[in-house]
Amino acid sequence: MKRQEAVLPTIDRGQTLEMLMQLQTLYFGDDEAVTKYADAAYWNALAKGQLSCCDSSSSSPSTDDLDTSIDADTSLARLNSNTLDHITTKGYHVLPSPKIKQNKYSSSAFTSTLKALADAGLPPQFLLMYDETWELLRDTVRQIVGDSNGSGSNDNTITIESDVNIWSLHKNDPSGSYIGGNFINPHRDMVFNACHDDDERPTSLSVWIPLNKCGATGFNGCMRCIPIEDDDFFYSPQHPRHSTNSHYTDDDAEKLIIEQFGCAIWDPSVVHWGGSYEPDRCKEEPRSSLAFTIRLGSKAADFGTAASRTPGSSTPLAQVDPTGPAACLVEDCGKGGLKRRIQVVAKGLLSYSHHWPGFPCAGFSENLKQSKLTLAEERKVTKSTDNLHSLLKDGVKNGNKKTKGEDGGIASDELLQLAQKKVLQELDSLYEEYTFATAKDASLTDDLQRHATTNDGDQQHHHTEDSLVYGEIDLQGFCDLLMNDIPHGSTDIFYDLGSGSGKAVFAARFVGDFQECVGIELLHNLHELASSVRSLYKFLYQHKLIHQNVQFVCSDLLDCDGWWKDGTVVYVPNLLFDDNLKNQIAEKAVKLKAGAHLICLKKFDSAAFNSAFDLVKERPVAMSWGESNVYIYQRQ
Prior knowledge:
The chain is α+β, with helices and mostly antiparallel strands. The protein folds into two domains: about 15-55 and about 65-70 and about 80-370, Sandwich (Jelly Rolls), CATH 2.60.120; about 420-635, Vaccinia Virus protein VP39 (Rossmann fold, 3-Layer(aba) Sandwich), CATH 3.40.50.150. It is built from 21 helices and 19 strands. Strands 1, 2, 3, 4, 7, 9 and 10 form a seven-stranded antiparallel beta sheet that branches. Helix 1 packs antiparallel against helix 10. The protein is elongated, with a radius of gyration of 27 Å.
């Protein structure tokens, strides 16, 4: 497979070595290095309540709890017979997601937090800081072990190796192997002798769980496996072809289609690889996944790296192990405090460092050098989105050579500037014939402008003449606000309440990964103008973007219930709205989902509103009439 071009931060060899050295201090549990990451409040704030890092697992397991010296026959016997049969004959098996997982875990919590981690300059491996990640691991092991002997699931005798990893593809990632992303090269997790006993029974199992909503599909990066019967060298660990598997292709493999929170299980000696995301063949989001290794008996897994701690060791988990984080029982895998979680994170990053062409998250180098982690609001972090990267493809081709690093990549401190420039060029072109004067004239000649009254059955809404006065956002200022002050991702929905010619809607569409961008406009003339711009957008620009949905609704914002039922980022240009209209909007706004952001030009005075919302930021933004203060609220 040919590696595609990609926009990645420029990192020289010296920087890489420095980062590896700093990661080693985390791996060995150096107290000073660990301190800045051991802040549960930081991780909770980053996840915005979707996942929790309560540090409730800070107590260390006892020496007895860590005794993993169990008989391999006992562990194998506990496996569901169907699962065991598939693994010993084909080499792998897929389990669906049971209802307990579907009801227990939010469909978007993991992927939203992965997006927040990336925005903060942290690789996906840091998803292991959260309690729910470890709980999902434990629930999956319970499903795999089953209850075949009728005595209940005794997963407390199953050991989890400390090689736990998070993988996350993006729509504009290269189709290569890199930390936090993917491995497209066919490989075995372990050679045959390292994961089988003398009777050729597996002593370890690899487990892989899709975290994204649509799961692992045929073209969004699902796992590929070579059946044992098609692998001439599966039982020949001494043969050179046992470890060299580059001759396999997608045509030779079975694609493991797995739903969200389901899992794939395979013998670690089975040849497998991760598929690349293929945007031309699917519309699903790229997959993200949790991967780990189960130890079935007393034989520790051998990945060809530093050995795990000897089973039955008397060294408590609280102490720093000479080889970093140790394996432990399933029931204890989330314990040991934040320190152990950080060690596991560092181990994963170090284990696959030889696959780095550069770090996948801009800002990670700076994070390692900081004395303390801070949220994006406190520390400027270069942000990027799928749509920005889509537009950057043209910008990189046509841009000045000075924007490129020595190795041809885009330097992280220039990436945002280039993205903003490209976005503004596209938006200006889109509105070249739909000027402010055109929109202003459309609003003044609208019949409703003269009557300013709408009807909703028996209810009548009166809008003052001032509330219908036309004004526009400044594209550059509004794009900057969306990129730097409003956290959002591909599950969010943007609404503009009084969208006019649609400039705010298209600004959100071009710079953000919103699932949908919707404009609600009362005046028919302006709605028609925005619809004309949408037609031009669909013809000239829609194909350039990953996230594409845009719609305009001609309606009174008080009658259109979509914004308070579905909206997660709502813009209200309420500078000239009268008190009655503001109060009616406030009454509807309190129905917004927890965590939703509301952007407005004038503060709301309603007591009910202010008890439901926090004013998180106030900043000046340019408008067509001059600079205006913008207020950003967040629903509690």
